[in-house]
Predict the structure.
Amino acid sequence: MSRSFRRLVAVSVSLWGALLVAGQARAARPAVVVDSLQILEKAVARDSTKFDNLWRLGVMYLDRERPVEATRIFTKASRLRPKDPKVLVNLGIALDASNHSDLAQQTYRQAMEVSPGDSIASCRLASSLYAEGKHQESVDVLRETIRERPGAYCAYFTLGVAFADAGIYRDAIRMWKKVIETGPNSPEAASAKESIEVLEKFVQP
């Protein structure tokens, strides 16, 4: 495998993590926009029982790559809403970014229990497992996600990364084409198109 392709795989894995964090923030960010992080921190310091403020602050910490603070805030939010899958997934993301992968995986599984079929939770779990070297377990999670939700383009994207990393280039391209088919307007689709263009050079006859 060439150095350029190794870089492609590394970038794809990193991008997938970034896409999920950004996607979670965009998808669930409340309509009210807080002017600054400092204002929100003061509001939470005065009253940490208001879920919306905790949620906004946790998302802002993730956006600013401050996972330790995000973990603390999402932990508080999860106590207020222990069965909210969005909170659990974001808590898992923060834990993963803080190098607490075991706790992150437990949290993703909790999200999957309270919201069966949640493709974001299962894709995050698979990504976390793969990063730990648990490749087969990761692939099993992704295949199960696709079986239950054929339109889960995040699963196709991550499975494509796994195939590419294993040198199974044609299957990687096939998975990334499914991303474009099932989520044509998603950031994952844009990344998949770029990855396909690079990878096709390695499978030319």
In short: The domain at 36-115 is CATH 1.25.40.10 (Serine Threonine Protein Phosphatase 5, Tetratricopeptide repeat).
